[in-house]
Amino acid sequence: MRLKLEDIGEQEVRRPIELPAEQIPGLSVLSEEEACFVAPIRGDLRLRRRDTVIELAGEVTSRVRLRCGRCLVPTDEDLDLRFQVTLSAGAPETSDDLEEETELSGDQLDVWMVEGDEIDLLDPLAEQILMVLPTHVVCSAHCKGLCSGCGADLNKDECQCKGEGFPGPFDALKDLKLD
Ligand SMILES: [Zn+2]
Ligand SMILES: [Zn+2]
User: Fold this and answer.
1) Ligand nearest the Cα atom of residue 74
2) Which pLDDT score is estimated for 106?
3) How many CB atoms lie within 10 A of CB 28?
4) Which of 23, 40, 139, 148 could be stapled to 68 by a disulfide with Cβ–Cβ 3.0 to 4.6 Å?
5) Mean pLDDT, rounded, for 130-139
6) Distance between Cα 149 and ligand 2 center (Å)
7) Helix or strand or coil: residue 177?
8) CA of 70 to the centre of ligand 2 (A)
9) Which ligand places an atom closest to the C-alpha of 151?
């Protein structure tokens, strides 16, 4: 999704987006286990440029499938992302400037450098998506998870390792009868 710098001006340029995640190269760093997109990346990107400074704003949604952190069942989570990044099409800093590391701090690190006369919008977009991607989901707040002894999914199955020598903090409760 390339855009020539000369096509961006002070007047806002709008680019709708609807792409499967596989077509966004920056997202290929994700393994299937980390996240699997089950809906396209869909939304709107807007750009505005003043001299060498380009403001990129975006609103995109998608849906991502991860494994529940407790019971490992595949669990879908909505992504709803709004972002704003500053891109700089200015000449790269000279090496002399880079040595003054104390000056490179704060918001300067958030500036995305554009090389050449084109921007690939998918690169900053991928970075933004990676930043908000959930790393831990639970299928439900009440998920009981897997038994650490027998591996049974305690949401569906009875634990199979009762009394088989896995002393745990709840052992004392086993003999408690409620009636
Ligand atoms: Zn679960
Ligand atoms: Zn068990």
Assistant:
1) 1
2) 47
3) 11
4) 139
5) 92
6) 4
7) coil
8) 14
9) 2
pLDDT at residue 173 greater than cutoff 70: no
Token pair 């505005």 in the structure block, residue: 48
Q: Residue 109 pLDDT > 60, yes or no? A: no
Q: How far is the CA of 26 from the centre of ligand 2 (A)?
A: 41
How far does the centroid of ligand 2 lie from the alpha carbon of residue 159, in Å? 4
Question: Cα(169)–Cα(108) distance, rounded to whole angstroms?
Answer: 51
Maximum pairwise Cα distance, the chain = 79
Mean pLDDT of 18-28: 93
For residue 43, name the pLDDT band (cuts at 50, 70, 90). very high
d(CA 152, ligand 1 centre) in Å: 12
For residues 12 and 97, give the distance between their C-alpha atoms in angstroms, rounded to a whole number: 32
Q: How far is the CA of 28 from the centre of ligand 1 (A)?
A: 26
Question: Rounded distance, CA 40 to CA 127, Å?
Answer: 16
Secondary structure letter of residue 12 according to DSSP: -
3-state SS class at 110: helix
pTM across the whole model:
0.73
Position 80 scores a pLDDT of: 96
Q: Which ligand is nearest to the CA of 145?
A: 1
Provide the residue ranges of all domains of the chain, joining segments of one domain with +.
Answer: 2-132, 144-179
Sequence length of the chain is: 179
